[in-house]
Amino acid sequence: MNIQVYQSFLTVVQCRSFTQAAKYLNFTQPTISNHINALEEEYGVILFTRDGKNVYLTQAGKNFVPIAQQLMADYQKSQEVMRQFQKKNYSLKIGVSTQGINFYLLPVLLKLKKEFPKLDIEVNRCMTVESTINDAFVQKLYDFAFVHIDVQPLYTKRVQLWNQPMVFVASKELYEQMGENNNIYDYPFVSYPASEVYYKHLKSKVDFTRLQSILTFSDSESVLMAVEQNLGIALTPRVKVRKELEQGTLVEFPVKYSGNMPISVLYDYEFNFTLPTKRFLELLKESQEKIKG
Fold first, then answer.
1. 0.85 cut: is pTM over it?
2. Which terminus of the chain is less hemmed in, N or C, by CB atoms within 10 Å?
3. Residues 21, 120: Cα–Cα separation, whole Å
């Protein structure tokens, strides 16, 4: 039952007139009548008797007055209590363990920003999965941590969101120089450090010890730059090179060398959700279903 109907009832009691109550509340008289009718139908009683323009409380109506007053008082108190938890300037702080996550995250953040224009959003790229988790749950720097490996620290909740395809790519020029050879072991390899998480997801498909590593970079931008300059092939999230693959400047190797990297979001088990952060999690789950579909 809408709280407004109780206010209308108490105003009619005070004014002893439907017409005066409507003027006081800036409603039409039919609206006031509908509110009273709704209450009478809800409780199965008659609250007022009418004598021309005058209205009088029935015994049921008299008994209902303190109940309606208490309901209105409780409603006003709830508004005051909840107002303490409202913030004029919401913020959302996110830590990601790899830049590739941002390709999935950005569309979600754009939708969230449209719904909460004043929301202050900060996304930070951490160096490793371990540092992402430490910054989020030990240092308390982030509300949410996005990681690209199956991990869940104690006292956290985890939602697996996306499976990011990982592919080997070469420049079109190098691929043609190699006679369009699809055997990755025949190519020079531009690598990340041996500890890179990317490799863990393809160990069942690729023998990384057989790859001819010629250069090692710690960042994906440098790795892809080396690939574009025909220095070798590299393993990369497909979403990062989607445009280049569509344009034909890069070539993707056969699916037998590909794999998926799971991306999950972690947050504290006792995380105090605000309206924007609650909506953010909902949009993430919607994005998950959309990509699956």
1. no
2. C
3. 44
